[in-house]
Amino acid sequence: MHVPVAIVGAGPSGSLLAWILRLRGIESIVLEARSREYVEQRIRAGVLEQGTVDMLIKAGIGDRLKKEHMYHRGVCIGYRNRHYMLDFEELIGRGVTVYGQQEITRDLLGALAKENHNVIYEAPVVAIEDIDSDRPAVRYEHNGRTHELTADIVAGCDGFHGASRKAMPADVLKAYETVYPFGWLGVLAEAPPSKEVALFSHHENGFALLSMRSPTISRLYLQCAPDEDLSEWSDGRIWDELETRLGAPGWTLERGPILQKEVTPLRSFFSEPMQHGRLFLAGDAAHVVPPTGAKGLNSAVADVSVLSAALIDHFTKGDEALLRRYSDIALERNWQVQRFSWSNTAMYHVYPDRSPFDARMHEAQLRYLIGDRSPQIVYAENHTGLPISHWPEI
Ligand code: APR
Ligand code: PHB
Question: What is the pLDDT of residues 260-305, one digit of tens each?
Fold first, then answer.
């Protein structure tokens, strides 16, 4: 079998790319290692940049998002048990949208299924070969057998642990990584959000974050050890520690049943280039950010915006100019997103191994932010999302 575009992975990157190409009549096949149920249920962050919202609406898959989202005009910062509001709307004229990222995956996979798009689940890709030729080959397993197809273009949208990045020649690929000495203990709770916006709090016990999914569901996080033992965290202990780290005089943390809890280690990872021959990487396949800026899905959407615009030029006009520049364009924005996520992580967290000098520097950064309008504008621009440079014509 030969297809114009073989897409590896049906997460947000792969499913959005397939959907946009479909809108322009460009055929693709999506190969996904897991089941549809598994992909749809993976819990993720819940903050969307305006560019992400605009893209989903433009692509005709924003109906539920428009109905169910919550809009936040800024964020609150907790420092020494006081709350400081950063009003992004007032600072730069735009805020952020709260809508579960797994809801977006559900919307996209649902839309593809309704159109009978060729998405093969439980079909892990095991090899991508001949990427230097004009007919790269993709090998995948399905129903106990190995299959092979060829494509004009392979889009590697298979996340951090996928096969695509590994198919890039080792002497071409350069990887950069920082693994943080902490993780996040995340909980989903049946409790009304205790703030109108998210609260990012720096406390001597560690960072804590109050976020939300709906008027009745809160999403909360505590900085913890990367290998924290969840069995040591009863619901009562979690709520008490959240209260300690997030608390401020005259403010109450609403408690409720905890529906789900998990520990996630934090890392920053980047590999470049994001293209070699006929293989193009997008989303987590090329870069992973710590969740402190909620940038994972938003960066994936920005990548797919440029890649889909370039593929549309290529397939409908025979114009390869943008496709050739894809990697450079995507790298530029993603390094800036890495910088924001990394500096935010440093500013809010307590590092077990940090020198007293470094600790004071990070604290000075936080004090500068809450005390002065200029850094607030810069923070607001980064938090609400850097511009997306190229949009597909759909
Ligand atoms: N073959 C096929 N599919 C694979 C393979 C493989 N060898 N390896 C992984 N996959 C699939 C995974 O099962 C997953 O469904 O690729 C998909 C990758 O999805 P994500 O990890 O969500 O990556 P991406 O689509 O780039 O999303 C980027 O969105 O959900 C957020 O925070 C998340 O940062 C992430 C962002
Ligand atoms: C979330 O709502 O899950 C969330 C919000 C902000 C972040 C990370 C996660 O930075």
Answer: 999 999 999 999 999 999 999 999 999 999 999 999 999 999 999 9
Which residue, by CA, sits nearest to atom 19 of ligand 1? 11
What's the Cα-to-Cα distance from 18 to each of 21, 25, 353, rounded to whole Å?
5, 10, 44
Ligand 1 pocket mutation pick from 55, 284, 301 by most atoms within 8 angstroms of CB: 284
Does residue 364 form part of some domain?
Answer: no
Atom 6 of ligand 2: nearest residue by CA position:
294
What is the average pLDDT across 82-111?
A: 96
Question: Contact 149/2 with Cβ under 8 angstroms?
Answer: yes
Q: How many helices (H) and strands (E) does the chain have?
A: 11, 19
Parent domain of 55: 2-72+97-176+267-349
CA–centroid distance, residue 33 to ligand 1 (Å): 9
Cα of 293 from ligand 2 centre, angstroms: 7
Total number of domains constituting the chain: 1
Does residue 33 have its Cβ closer than 6 Å to ligand 2?
A: no
Measured from the alpha carbon of residue 382, the closest ligand is 2
Q: 8 in a domain, yes or no?
A: yes
Q: Which ligand is nearest to the CA of 121?
A: 1
In CATH, what number is assigned to the domain containing residue 336?
Answer: 3.50.50.60
Q: Is 159 helix (H, G, I), strand (E, B) or coil?
A: coil
Q: Looking at the domain assignment, is residue 381 inside a domain?
A: no
Q: What is the pLDDT of residues 32-66, one digit of tens each?
A: 999 999 999 987 888 999 999 999 999 999 999 99
Nearest CA to ligand 1 atom 35: 296
DSSP result, 298-321 = HHHHHHHHHHHHHHHIIIII---H
Ligand index nearest the alpha carbon of residue 341: 2
The predicted pLDDT at position 302 comes to 98
The residue contributing the CA closest to ligand 1 atom 8 is 162
Radius of gyration in angstroms for the set of CA atoms belonging to the chain, rounded to a whole number: 21
Residues, the chain: 394
Residue 31: its H or E element: strand 28-31
Question: Is 376 part of any domain?
Answer: no
pLDDT (tens digit, 9 = 90+) per residue, 97-142?
999 988 999 999 999 999 999 999 999 999 999 999 999 999 999 9
Using most ligand atoms within 8 A of CB, pick from 76, 97, 209 the residue to mutate for ligand 2: 209
